[in-house]
Amino acid sequence: MTVAWRDAPPLAPQDLSSDRSETLDPEDWKALRTQGHRMLDDMFDHVAGVRARPVWQPIPPETRARFRGALPQAPTDLGDVYREFADHIAPYTTGNIHPGFMGWVHGGGNAVGMLAEMLAAGLNANCGGRDHVPIEVERQIVQWTRQMFGFPDTASGLFVTGTSMANLMAVLVARATRLGPSVRQHGLSDCGARLTAYTSVATHGCIAQAMDLAGFGTDALRRIPVDHCHRIDVAVLRAQIAADRVAGFEPFLVVGSAGTVDIGAIDDLAALHDVCRDEDIWLHVDGAYGALGILSAEIAPRLAGIESADSIGFDFHKWGQVPYDAGFLLVRDGEQHRATFAASAAYLRRETRGLAAGSPWPCDYGPDLSRGFRALKTWFTLKTYGTDKLGAVISRTCELARYMEAKVAAEPRLELLAPVQLNIVCFRYRAEDADAVNADIVAALHESGIAAPSTTTLDGRIAIRAAIVNHRTDRRDIDALLSAVLEFGACETAARIER
Questions:
Q1: Cα–Cα distance measured from residue 217 to residue 213, given in angstroms and rounded to the nearest whole number
Q2: DSSP string for residues in 156-211
Q3: Cα torsion 368, 322, 457, 229: sign
Q4: What is the pLDDT of residue 17?
Q5: What number of other Cβ atoms are within 10 A of residue 76's Cβ?
Q6: How far apart are CA 380 and CA 399, in angstroms?
Q7: CATH number of 383-498
Q8: HSE of 111 in the Cβ direction (CA atoms, 13 Å)?
Q9: Which of 13, 115, 206, 220 could bridge across to 216 with cysteines, CB 3.0–4.6 Å?
Q10: Is the pLDDT of residue 15 over 60?
């Protein structure tokens, strides 16, 4: 009979008095429990009352100085340590749980995931391998992602830190697929030096970094122009591939985007699949946040073709609202994925029984042997809310972006700089010396604590970029941002006239 962990009988008492000072467990569990409940309640209050605080505020010099202190050697009371956290850490974070945070593409997290992270920390499971249920939880999410994207049962998946790592790993799998297993021993050699990859000029910079880290160098990445909707120009892509073949290069990888970093454009993934099928090229989709649009009935049709990709990288911690970090790589050919990373070692011998069973292990599919239990907070989020609810949250962020687009279009002092395709709105305040004015507006917004958009450059012009990702954001937050942009814009232009 299996006994639930919370109902398990205590082990027989042992005399460990001589070693008591060497354990990190408390002498008084009741006192720790009291302190722990206070910390948990305070964090619930912190999240529940987020609107009452600034989105972001500058770090005071005295607070910054606290984190320049010497290595602690003597113990400090937990209550004192917690007070330092409450006074000097919690108030000065990025602010992405706040509904006014619209800078970059950061998810807002969720309270259930927060609790799951606490549970995972208590279990302290190393999810590199071996036969224990945390591995089964991760395998279940692999199964669920296959279902999300229409991948076969033989597809593999792995939690990673984020899509930057997932994209690097996808490049490595594509490399091993083209060059064979010997590349792991001999490196790229002359044949590998001729390999070329392709992506759009709008793709995230981590793709170029992945080519660098994989040994190809960034010159091996061809950056293809985009069309008026900021999608990769498929005709130009075909022409570049043909030209490279004539020049003696060997195309091996195309990276499509499902939600570009600047404006949220989705490449024509079905057309990219046709190109890769015709040319025998690996198709990877960088879906850092946009791939989870597959959960939205509104957005899923625009991702047509993603089900045919060879690999997909995405983040549950963005549109999926899972607390950081929870990146994921899904690979159609699970055996090729494993062959790219698996390595034997005597101290990692796999058995057919006992704790060393359960092969293949997650460490066979990536570079990390020590891995946290990222799957638990994702599992709790998916189980608690369900994909219908998460899909509705995703659709809502896009609805808010359209609302913001309409407000910008109706305001003569503002101009839209790119079409709104998903949940990102790029606009700016009309002014002479507009680039400097809008950069100052964004800095003033941050310092005011009202809202936190970011900036980007589109067609050589500085844009205010509002990425609406947080499930807490609503119309009043959009209105507050736009009102503040108009106010600060007027102040900035008036100050320039006076100077």
A1: 8
A2: EEEEES-HHHHHHHHHHHHHHHHH-TTHHHH-SHHHHTTEEEEEETTS-THHHHHH
A3: positive
A4: 55
A5: 9
A6: 26
A7: 3.90.1150.170
A8: 12
A9: 220
A10: no
CATH number of the domain at 126-372, please? Answer: 3.40.640.10
Distance of CA 413 to the CA centre of its chain: 34
What lies within 8 Å, CB to CB, of 386 at 6+ separation is none
21-30, 296-305, 309-318: segment of lowest average pLDDT: 21-30
Residues 174-191, mean pLDDT to the nearest whole number: 91
Paired strand residues for 424: 467
Cα separation, 184 vs 284, in Å, equals 21
Using alpha carbons, select from 56, 47, 45 the residue that is nearest to residue 100: 56
Q: In what helix (H) or strand (E) does residue 425 lie, and over which residues does it extend?
A: strand 424-429
Q: Residue 399 burial (CB < 10 Å; 0-12/13-18/19+)?
A: middle
Cα 489 from Cα 495, distance rounded (Å): 10
Residue 163 CA to chain centroid, in angstroms?
Answer: 6
Q: What is the pLDDT of residues 48-107, one digit of tens each?
A: 999 999 999 999 999 999 999 999 999 999 999 999 999 999 999 999 999 999 999 999
- Contact in structure between 210 and 255 (CB atoms under 8 Å): no
Residue 130 is encoded by which pair of tokens? 């071996």
Q: What proportion of the chain, given as a percentage, has pLDDT over 70?
A: 96
d(CA 458, CA 85): 40
Residue extent(s) of CATH 3.90.1150.170 domains in the chain: 383-498
In this predicted structure, the answer to whether residue 176 has a pLDDT above a threshold of 90 is: yes
| Residue carrying structure tokens 């249920």 | 133
CA distance 124 to 20: 22
In the chain, CATH 3.40.640.10 sits at 126-372
Cβ–Cβ < 8 Å for 463, 390? no
Q: Is 381 left (phi over 0), alpha (psi -120 to 50) or beta?
A: alpha
What pairs with residue 195 in β-bridges? 250
Handedness of CA 293, 296, 302, 308 (dihedral sign): positive
The pLDDT tens digits of the residues spanning 149-165 come to: 999 999 999 999 999 99
Residues 280-306: tens digit of each pLDDT: 999 999 999 999 999 999 999 999 999
Mean pLDDT of the chain: 95
Tokens of 355: 């704790």
Question: In degrees, to the nearest 5, what angle opens at C-alpha 231 toward C-alphas 333 and 276?
Answer: 30
Q: Which residues contact 200 (CB under 8 A, 6 or more apart)?
A: 223, 224, 225, 226, 230, 231, 232, 233, 257, 260, 267
Dist. CA 164–CA 119, nearest whole Å: 27
Strand pairing category for 424-429 and 327-331? unpaired
Closest CA to 454 of 416, 428, 480, 488: 428
Q: Please tell me the distance from the alpha carbon of residue 107 to that of residue 159, in angstroms, as a whole number.
A: 17
Burial class, 153, CB count within 10 angstroms (exposed 0-12 / middle 13-18 / buried 19+)? exposed
